[in-house]
Every structure is written in structure tokens, then in C-alpha cells.
Amino acid sequence: MQQILRDEVEALYRLWQVAARGSWAPRPDALDVAADHPDLAPYHYRVAVVDNGRDFRYDHVGAHLIAHIGVDFTGRRVSAFMTDYEQPGNADGYAAALRTGKPTVSIHDLRNAAGDYVIYERLLCPLSSDGRRVDALFGAMAFWKPD
Fold first, then answer.
1. Rounded Cα gap, residues 85 and 23, in angstroms
2. Is 71:113 a contact under the CB 8 Å cutoff?
3. Residue 98: its pLDDT value, please?
4. Quick one: CA dihedral 47, 50, 54, 55, positive or negative?
5. What are the helix and strand counts (H, E) for the chain?
6. Do residues 134 and 97 lie in contact, with contact meaning Cβ atoms separated by under 8 Å?
7. Where are the beta strands (DSSP E) in 5-103?
8. Of 84, 83, 79, which is closest to residue 94 (Cα–Cα)?
């Protein structure tokens, strides 16, 4: 995994590591960011694996993401969101985290709902209800505007 640049993303990665307790993936209910770390909750999001891994659905989206993208995409599929806002290939990290069962971190850009260009760092970490397969991803995003 490449180096994490943003403090909020690093802190959420550390929370995931603690919840995993040395296993490859914690259970989804092992992490309650809003209750346990409200300062980090705005940067957190979670996606469920749907359609046997062919797509993902945003189950929770933090306020930082909504503020910088300009729309609440909770409940939407990643494929639909990517079509509306992202560059081709930006969704590849979701499939990689599902396929490998390992955290991924990457830098991307998008045009938000207001048409502004923003850059973001994205962390995706596997979650597993049964300890055998990835059924959700624990995510973090931190946005900034280019200089």
C-alpha cells in the first residue's frame, strides 16, 4: 500500500487496523466511527458489496464527502456515482480491495456538483461478516483543492 498523505485518512486506517486485531478484515460491526470517534466521522464512508461483487452501494457517507462533492450519495451504487462525477478507472480500487482482501489507498480527482475541480485521497479496507469473504468496505476520503 502506498503512503497515506492526509492525517484523517491515516487515523481512520489506524482504527481499522485496531478493529482487525491482526486478522485480515474486521467484522463490519467492529467499527462505529460516529459513536467512538466523532471527529473522524465526516471523513468516513462505507460501501456494501452488491451483485456478487460486480458493484458496490454507499451505505454511509460522511459530511466531509458530501460537502466537497456537493451531493449526498448515500444509497447510490458506486457505478452510478462514478458515471456522474468520476474519471474512468477511479472505481478500480473498490474491485481491488474486494479481490485482494487488502487495504488500498489512492489519489484521485473529480469535478463536484458545482463544477469545481477537487483532489482526494481514498482509503478502502475490507470488512467481513463471516471471516471468509469481503462483504463491505470501510472507506475514508479527504479532499482538497489544487493550488
1. 34
2. yes
3. 93
4. negative
5. 5, 5
6. yes
7. 44-50, 55-61
8. 79
How far apart, in Å, are the Cα atoms of 70 and each of 37, 84, 127? 24, 12, 27
Question: What are the phi and psi torsion angles at 67 (to 5°)?
Answer: -65, -40
- Contact assessment for residue 136 and residue 94, using Cβ atoms and an 8 Å cutoff: no
DSSP-based three-state secondary structure for 91: coil
144: cell is: 482538497
C-alpha cell belonging to residue 35: 459513536
**Amino acid residing at 141:** M
Q: Can you read off the three cell numbers belonging to residue 43?
A: 471523513
Strand intervals (E) in the chain: 44-50, 55-61, 104-111, 117-127, 136-144
Distance CA(93)–CA(114), nearest Å, equals: 25
Q: What angle do CA 133, 45, 135 make, to 5 degrees?
A: 10
pLDDT tens by residue, 89-140: 667 888 899 999 999 999 988 888 888 888 999 999 999 999 999 999 999 9
CB 55 within 8 A of CB 47: no
Report the DSSP beta bridge partners of residue 46: 60, 138
- Find all residues with CB under 8 Å of 136, minimum gap 6, and list them: 28, 46, 47, 48, 49, 59, 126, 127, 129
